[in-house]
TrEMBL record:
Gene3D superfamilies found in the cross-reference section: 2.40.160.20
Intracellular or extracellular location(s): Cell outer membrane
PANTHER family named among the record's database cross-references: BLL7405 PROTEIN (PTHR34001:SF3)
Outer membrane protein beta-barrel domain mapped to chain residues: 42-245
Keywords associated with the record: Cell outer membrane, Membrane, Signal
Signal peptide per UniProt: none
Family matches, as Pfam families: OMP_b-brl
Family membership noted in the UniProt record: Belongs to the Omp25/RopB family.
Keyword ATP-binding set for record: no
Name the record gives this protein: Outer membrane protein
Length: 245
């Protein structure tokens, strides 16, 4: 750029010419020649990270049967749920900013050990140990921000118990039986992910799981056999961080 040019000072009676040129390019207006603007964040690639969650879990004691008799249904009150775990996956961003991907998650669960009174001398319990899922996701990228939805298959490790009481020498004595089983179903949710840097992103999301397939068949108790389903459902609000490779 040549900001100012002057002709030589002329002799008397001659014309003086002053020329002024300016470069009004975007680089100049932004404070000088800094090269090209950095490209928008590219969501294509593999990632792995950690998450923590809080929410609610609900259980049913469905189709509860004693010695093969007719099933009865009981419902637990919702109980608080906390979770922590890891996730991994791969995303691909298309030219129109649509992002599709697939991934997996594993969470250790801590839910209040819920006990429900079935009758005066009978009670049931339910507890969640862990939750795993494989999911697809689709979203729309707006620069450093990705808005997305998810859906997939989930399985949880659950422990269920049944207790009954009888009077011995005038006192109630409780005895019980329990079983651990896997329950499976579907999961769905959505959230927002934000890129802090080229490799680090953070996210907040809502996730719901409805797990209706599975049953408990514990050892006999006092000569009677029992079976039931628990049909867990879980609502979670999650915060997570990912490292993108």
């Amino acid at each position: 750029m040549e900001p100012l040019s002057l002709t030589r000072v002329p002799s008397p009676g001659r014309t003086v010419r002053i020329g002024l040129t300016a470069d009004l390019s975007a680089a100049t207006l932004n404070g000088g020649n800094r090269g090209d603007a950095p490209p928008s964040f590219d969501w294509t690639g593999a990632y792995a990270g950690l998450h923590a969650a809080s929410g609610l879990s609900g259980f049913q004691m469905a189709d509860f049967s004693r010695d093969g008799g007719p099933g009865q249904n009981y419902r637990f009150k919702d109980t608080s749920l906390r979770a922590a775990g890891l996730q991994f996956g791969y995303d691909h961003q298309f030219a129109n900013n649509i992002v599709v991907g697939a991934g997996g998650e594993f969470s250790w669960l801590k839910a209040d050990n819920k006990v429900m009174q079935i009758a005066g001398r009978e009670r049931g319990s339910a507890h969640a140990n862990w939750l795993a899922s494989v999911q697809g996701r689709i979203g729309y990228a707006i620069g450093d921000v990705l808005i997305y939805g998810t859906a997939g298959y989930a399985v949880a490790d659950m422990r269920g118990g049944y207790d009954s009481a009888r009077r011995v020498s005038g006192e109630l004595v409780w005895s019980g039986t329990s079983d651990t089983s896997r329950f499976s179903g579907w999961t769905a949710g959505g959230g927002i992910e934000y890129a802090l840097s080229k490799n680090i992103t953070v996210k907040g999301e809502y996730s719901f799981a409805n797990l209706s397939k599975g049953s408990f068949n514990p050892p006999e108790l006092d000569g009677s056999s029992y079976s039931w389903k628990i049909k867990p459902r879980m609502d979670q609000l999650r915060l997570g961080v990912n490292y993108r490779f």
